[in-house]
Amino acid sequence: MIHNFNAGPSILPKEVFEEASRAILNFNETGLSILEFGHRTPMFESVVSEAMDLVRELMQLDGNKEVMFLHGGASTQFFQVPMNFLSKDKTAAYLDGGVWGSKAIKEAKLFGNVEVVASSKDRNYSYIPTGYTLPDNAAYFHYTTNNTIEGTQMQGIPSSSVPLIADMSSDILSCGMDFNRFSFIYAGAQKNIGAAGVNLVVADKDFLATGNTAIPSMMDYRQHVANGSMLNTPPVFAIYVCLLTLRWLKKIGGIPAIEKINEQKADLLYSTLASLPMFNLPVPAQDRSKMNAVFTMHDPALEKLFLTRCEEEGMVGIKGHRSVGGFRVSMYNAMPLSSVVDITDLIKDFANKHA
Amino acid sequence: MIHNFNAGPSILPKEVFEEASRAILNFNETGLSILEFGHRTPMFESVVSEAMDLVRELMQLDGNKEVMFLHGGASTQFFQVPMNFLSKDKTAAYLDGGVWGSKAIKEAKLFGNVEVVASSKDRNYSYIPTGYTLPDNAAYFHYTTNNTIEGTQMQGIPSSSVPLIADMSSDILSCGMDFNRFSFIYAGAQKNIGAAGVNLVVADKDFLATGNTAIPSMMDYRQHVANGSMLNTPPVFAIYVCLLTLRWLKKIGGIPAIEKINEQKADLLYSTLASLPMFNLPVPAQDRSKMNAVFTMHDPALEKLFLTRCEEEGMVGIKGHRSVGGFRVSMYNAMPLSSVVDITDLIKDFANKHA
């Protein structure tokens, strides 16, 4: 039994793997592989439209929202967002809450003025900054809802009079929130939505209308909307995997159901770690991510033993990011509670043996 | 039996589908799906490096070439190329030889001056323009080697004193040529290389060094090279399918072997069509594509009957592009000769019955 705690690409539901595997041999009983299937066919168009509809339904989007599936990953959005919504005579507000947010800031500076309203860089992004004010005249305010590397997660939505833009790559669809308060949401698929190579974008129609023109066609969100995410050949298979994952999420009860499970998983893991003096949780309790739990051990020699033990027992992907060290246990939507039970049992047993 | 003559996404070898399908359940006996597999693992790094090595070997690239696998499709390259290599004080030469080339021209104009050295737009791009001269001072000369929609294909490489850039999306790896004469080659994967959602780029190191700086990281070829095509999470599965297809091509004898088969297929189809007065070949013989054969019928009423007959016999994807009409039979590398034999038999039988 392998437990895949990878931070991304990461675990997806088993039935998604099974159906995707079948579709590569025979898509919808057509006798053709999904990999050789024309994207401008009614059958693939219905894949895209069903996936879009499921996003609308699961996120409870209002009628003013557009849904897109675009090539690339969040890193593509880091520059595509300011290319569309920033310019030399405008200022965008950014929260510098983690490595990925800081990369988004770097790209935005190529297109206009950036005001970093707050930063947690002083303590290696180990907490969520608070107490900042947003400039009234900002073109938008950009932040990362969940910091995959540092294991921090924003609680709630900041109150803002300027358009909100969020990178939700690593916690989208994992917990309820009023998604309609955002002008623009993007997420690389390879955590909670599907396979690597596609972005989900949810954008407000009115906000899209304020975007820059005279930008490359493939970068222009409005052109993607007008073409139903088929401005060019889309990442067909990656979108299909999104559809399968979205269907699974709906089937198990949508965001309310998965949120409960995600809370159980995170509570179990964090409370176990907090109860054992051997382990250290660098993130303050109120900022801890329910998707990526980051922890270290006070004794570096034990860290090596712990990693070996995890590997021996099929716990994959728990090594922390090189910028943080220690360990990271990612518990995305598709991660069953039983796997978190297994790793907490291992943690307790390890702590007992090496106390 | 289904014959998939789709123009793209298009047929891939059966063994590629079979191995890709298995890898979605269990990648390399790891017990994990390729869809949940971390890209920064030695096993996936070896997927990327083997795919790059196979490209070098199959295309017989010299040591001055870099190979990249990048997000998106050829449409992404339409603007990424000029973003890197054109500017307001420079001029790029473009050949306007088809719908896709004209789209590349449109994107390039956003970044600098474009000189269209020749165009076949006057006759709906039904031929390859000749007799043009290239400006000595051009930053580069861009053309499309094979025009998927119009069924035309460049024969040989134009002599040029300026850096050559080619969009080879629909005929790469299908016939031998001195790929080292190009400064920059790109190709969307979904015809001869793999699945949709990834580009193959082959670029000259010296040429890359002349590129613009201060462009978005994800658009900067040099950053992709420096990071081994893992600047961000790459389209993992799409790259894996490329590897499988490249392995297949090597196994059957590489470009020399596939070129012979491609010539047999094209000769058979074109000679059959040319022998039947019912059919019309709009492209002059010397410009006909070996990948995409375009033809019409003199009697529009018969076209409908022909399409129905093809559908009845499992011939998929033969309807011509809406801008050209009639029919298009795509015969990419993975299309077996036997399928072309079957469709020519059908064509002859249809002509007999309706003569």
In CATH terms, the superfamily of the largest domain in chain A is: Type I PLP-dependent aspartate aminotransferase-like (Major domain)
> Treating each run of at least 4 consecutive H or I residues as one helix, how many helices of chain A?
10
Instruction: Determine and state the CATH class of the largest domain in chain A.
Output: Alpha Beta
User: How does the overall form of chain A come out from the CA principal axes?
Assistant: globular
Low-confidence stretches of chain A: none
What is the helical fraction of chain A, as a range of percent?
Answer: 25-40%
Across the major sheet of chain A, the strand order is 2-10-9-8-5-3-4
Could you tell me which chain pair has the largest interface and how many residues each side has?
A-B, 63 and 63 residues
Q: What is the H/E order of chain A?
A: EHHEHEHEEEEEEEHHHHEEHEEH
Number of domains of chain A: 2
Supply the CATH architecture of the largest domain in chain A: 3-Layer(aba) Sandwich
Structural class of chain A: alpha/beta
Mean pLDDT of chain A: 97
- The rounded distance between the terminal residues' Cα atoms of chain A is 27 Å
Query: What is the number of beta strands of chain A?
Result: 14
Radius of gyration of chain A (CA) equals: 21 Å
Task: Report the biggest beta sheet of chain A as strand number plus sense, adding barrel if it closes.
Answer: 7 strands, mixed
